Queue: 2 jobs
Job 1
Amino acid sequence: MFQWAFAKTMEKKLGCKVVFDNSSILSEDIKLNIFGLNPEYAGKKQIELSKSYLKSKKSKYYRILHSLPKYYPAQIIETNKFKYDKNFFQIKNKYYYKGYFQNYRYFSENKEQIKKDFTFPSIDSSDKKTKEILDRINATKNSVFVHIRKGDRLTTQCLTWTSEYYEKAFKYIKDKLGNVKFYIFAEDNIDEIKAKYGQIYDCEIISKIDEEWKLIYLMSKCTHAIISNDLKSWWAAFLMDRETESKDKIICAPAPYLDGQSDIIPDEWVKIEHKSDIKIAVLYIALGRYDVFWKGFYTTCEKYFLRDCQKTYFLFTDSSKIEYEKNLNVRKIYQKKLGWPYDSMLRFDMFLSQKSELEKYDYIFFFNANIEFVSEVGHEILPEDEKYEGLIVAHQPFLYNLGYDSYTYERNPKSTAYIPYGEGKYYVMGALNGGISNIYLKMCEELSRNIQIDLKNNIIALWHDESHLNKYIVDKNFLIMECNYLYPEGCILPEYME
């Protein structure tokens, strides 16, 4: 459903035709033929051509100046699930889009058409159970659907079925509306739900709906909603057709919604905030004139970065007074200005001066002073120990996909940061890195030792700490964020990222 909404909105905004690859997309549980929609599918040759590499239209001089490849991939792949990327609607060439595009903002301007597209069929007269439930809902003035799903959501990084969320949502709606009836759609834990809510609220528990489209349809016929972090209840709330745009309509949603993000929740819905127990240490260096960036970093980090986690900022600065220094989540640490390049290159020594405190946190992240957040960053940035060896880094955008011999690694064999030609897979930025605390601190210790060895030998690696970071990860399996995840403001994006 999200893929259809994305595609139809793209057709409208760009005036282009969109066809679907039925071998790998449209895999959501609810099939489009339920709504009488007949998507046009691409042929095998069309798919192969769209996935091939395209030749850059830029001149050779332009490509060299901006470090752009001669050929670039024609595939546009959604790298941050549930996160809105405005650049998807700026591409006008023939491309192959791969993703689920599960974000309301992709089709918010086209929402009325999407609601019309997703018109459910009538319930068959032979389906007495569903029709009886529908009649009861229609006869209720203030009906509220409550979707409770436990199951596989226990394994995802999001707010799962908890008493805390539902108790807050029940109370919020009851306080706002007074006389309401709750229709609780549950897939399991029926006895527990009856015991918890049945004696407190006027409610009816509904289970064992035989088809998922009927579940969405029944929920959508209610007036208000308490949704779970499940896309079926999201669509039911979006499609509620009784005075759909009424200001009195209340939809409660857990925040964060999925994978630590809430971007999928429309602004007019009520977000029931939840704080996880995950503790994050944010490392930030503001020496000399770089303290001017601190305010923008702190405010945007608070607004967008891992909002559900408990963040503490370790602020290394020589400023006698700096904004937000009295905030409870800011630890101001005096750091003498060392001069260039040591203010940057010796960062790992600075971090290790706080090792005993940093060990108390689950994750540690370092950000360059001049970074600001422009959209939500959720749990997708948290590296899994088993899969990514506990570290996260980010592509350097202007060296992306050029090949290891074009990367600006340290080529001096006498340096501990040395990477010979023919080795290396990626080139990453020094502006963002992080990981599980003990693993990240271990990295800091090794990089600190290597930098000190180089200094004793009168060697400074080409890109200082960044060169040593690239050496450290050259043979490791790490979580790497795509280059449009962290990009210099005002710089020209390669055409395939625009």
Job 2
Amino acid sequence: MLRGEMKSAKDACVLWSLAMSCKIHNIDPEKCLVDVLCALPSVAASGLHA
């Protein structure tokens, strides 16, 4: 497997996990993702966890 393919697979898993977590908690995954992405510019890099 090529490195780029592995990164793409990991990214897809993260998005799938977010969507399923939202579904379990009756949250609209699209709205959740938009909220997270809009909040990122106001968060200091030191406040982010990998």
